[in-house]
Structure formats: structure tokens, C-alpha cells
Design brief:
With about 210 residues, this protein is mostly helical. Helix content is about 75%, strand content about 0%. α3 packs parallel to α5.
Amino acid sequence: MKKVLVIVSLLVATMVNAQSKFEGAMVKGLGQLKDAKTAADLTDVSSFFERVGDAEKTQWLPYYYAALSLYRSAWVDKSLDKDKVADKCKDYISKAQAIENNADLYCLVQQVAVLQMMVDPMSRWQTYGVQAKDALASATKADPTNPRIYYLQGMTTYNTPEAYGGGKAVAKPLFQKSVDLFKTYVPAKPFYPTWGKEEAEKMLAAYN
């Protein structure tokens, strides 16, 4: 009986230690992401989260943030090859989706598709525009209460010409819905994505 208790105690201690290491790594990585100013900073953050993901193997969040950080680097430094950045982001997303699939990962798929579309919007719309639209449809199906979905829809609509069903007026209700959902939105678990609230509020405020 004592041997059983010792074994159980060791297993519990090992699990607690592993969880503590993961939590510590996530706190560190998210702190670095918040402080990142340059594309190089964001690339370093991405690499850090990739290492965390490779070490944990059962956690989707590190790969999510690895992709998100790298995605942002392409907007900070416009000279970066967006296709190369996107391909690496997709690799991270695939690893995350192999562990768990959810609305936030679909949102990230949409963002990466838009990144590639913006290389040449006129010639790439039919490919990456459709991918982006389908990704948000999947995100809505997975969790229609996720406010980031409607912020991203709003941004797409805002930047789409009125002749194609877009424009500022059509986008406003989407920003409003995102802001409204953020009022009661609570991340499901620690370290889950929280971004989007300030961005949606800023876009909505621009209408006033």
C-alpha cells in the first residue's frame, strides 16, 4: 500500500511540475509578445513558442502564439516575404490543429490567408479570399460567440469595395457585434487568446 501511495505521489508531483513549467513558459512568452516592437522581436517570440510547443507536444497554445507572432512580424516589416511567413505560420497552425481545433485557430487561418492575398489582391482574391471566408465560416460554426470572428469579418468588409458588397457602412454592425460580445467574453482557460477588444473598439469609435 505504501509503495502505491509513493508511486501516486510521484506521478502527481511530476504532473504538477510539468504543468508549472508550461505555465511559466507561457507567462514568459506572452510577456515577450506584449513587449515586442520589431519584426525581429516577433520572430524571436515565435521561435520561443515553437520550442515550448515542441517540448509540450499536447498543448496547442504555443503553436498558436508561434504563428500569431510570426504573422504580425510580416505587418511590422513590410519587406518580409509574406508567402514565406505564411507558409511557416501554416506549419504552426497545422501542428496546433492536430492537437485541438477551435474558432481561434480558424481565425488565424483567415488572417494568414489575408496576408497572402494582400501580396496581389486582384490576382489572389479568388484563392486566398475564398480561403479566408471559409475559415471564418468554420470559426463561426465552432464558436459563434467568439468576438474575434466579427472583428476580422468587419475588417475584411471594411476594406472590400462597396461594389463587391463591402464598405464602411456594412462593416459597422460587425464591429458593433464584436464589441458587444467582448463585454461578456471570458477566455475558456488560462493563456487563451484575448486580443481584439481594443482593435474592435478603435474601429467602432472611428464612426463617431
